[in-house]
Amino acid sequence: MTLNKNRLGLNQRVRLEWLERTAHLILAGNNEKDIHGTLQELLKDQLSVGSQAKRCNRDKVISILQMVWVNPIPEIRALRTEGLQFLAQPPEGICFGETSLIVHWGMMMAVYPFWTAVATQTGRLLRLQGNATASQIQRRLRELYGERESVSKATRRVLRSFVDWGVLQDTEKIGIYTGGTSQTVEDPRLVAWLIEAFLRSKGNGPIPLKEIIENPGLFPFRIKPLHGEYLAKASSRLEFFYSGLDEVLVRVKA
User: Fold this and answer.
1) In this model, does residue 120 exceed pLDDT 70?
2) What strands lie across the sheet with 247-252, from one edge to the other?
3) What is the pTM of this model?
4) Is the confidence at residue 3, as pLDDT, over 60?
5) What are the residue boundaries of the structural domains of the chain, listed by start?
6) Disulfide engineering: 234 pairs with which of 23, 80, 188, 241, CB 3.0-4.6 Å?
7) Over the Cα atoms of the chain, what is R_g?
8) Those residues with Cβ within 8 angstroms of residue 29's Cβ, 6 or more apart along the chain or in another chain
9) What are the Cα distances from residue 194, in Å, to 52, 94, 151, 190, 217?
10) Which of 91, 103, 112 is nearest to 26 (CA)?
């Protein structure tokens, strides 16, 4: 199974706490069957209450959670393994909550490039005008992915996920959002890991390092600019090289 950059896949809101629970079930040594059963129990009073139908909203959310943490595509298994390590033992000086936002955001980007696409349009609007309007984001995503109802629905679900995660805030006007949580990322290993997650969502690069660090798709984070050689030591999966005199490019090693 390979990653389809045009696949939406996000037809449900995904809460950060659900991803966190899934990851920690893996860390506790649970197998796929036990994780599925635990998630069914966890979500039975939150989604499709009382329903036993196949492919109900609860099952769709569980499928997303499993795609992210339980059954990742081969290309991102190393990324996922390191992400789990960060969740189990955050880098020195970083609390568990801060690591959680970084790691789950990165995994959502790597598995679902549509998440990155919505984040990019949201972050760009926040940067330009101080708020993000759902209608503007919807319009741009339909231009990119086509005039389909599934695109509009998926965009709405991702935006509501951003609000649930605290990185966006509702305003008094429905459909207009302002920025929420903003987190500094300075640890070289976390910076390198987040760069790889971004590259995975874009097809691995090469992409200018500065462009990634400042990309609006990473709007919940203030990423410390670090030298490519320093980041290369932090991740064996990234390759850095110069283009011209001073532009550093980065890609995932083949």
Assistant:
1) yes
2) 207-208, 247-252, 238-243
3) 0.93
4) no
5) 16-111
6) 188
7) 18
8) none
9) 38, 15, 26, 6, 11
10) 103
